[in-house]
From TrEMBL:
Protein's name in the database: Uncharacterized protein (DUF488 family)
Superkingdom in the source lineage: Bacteria
Organism in which the protein naturally occurs: Methylobacterium aerolatum
Family annotation (Pfam families): DUF488
InterPro entries per UniProt: DUF488, UCP024492
Amino acid sequence: MGKTLFTIGYEGLDPERLTGALRGAGVAVLADVRAVANSRKRGFSKNALRTGLEEAGLGYSHWRQLGTPKAGREAARADDAALLHRIYCEEVLETAEGIAALDGLAALAEGAPVCLLCFERDPARCHRRILTERLAQRGFAVVDLFG
């Protein structure tokens, strides 16, 4: 069995439940894969999230370059998985910057248990699913956490 990669969406969670789910799964580093690491939800903007995780003994890493472009986020909100997939692959994963970021994320996950974070609770409605499909091809088993 290869390495395990976790994912979680913070929709419906508070920072304490997020931290509890990560610790319970043995996650060492939260990889924030939002293009824009801001949130109207308390504790989920980049600096507050990093601080809360560090206080809980967890690492934080922001992978802005693996975030979804605005059109992709709109497709996700409209529950158009095919359009999200096309936009995300063309505009992110098939670019030099996206390929380099995916390689970096894979290297991070080789060295420590990593969990990908975005907003959507359901990973099937999020670009996390596309990322984990690519990483599964590199030998990662994927576990979706729900807090």
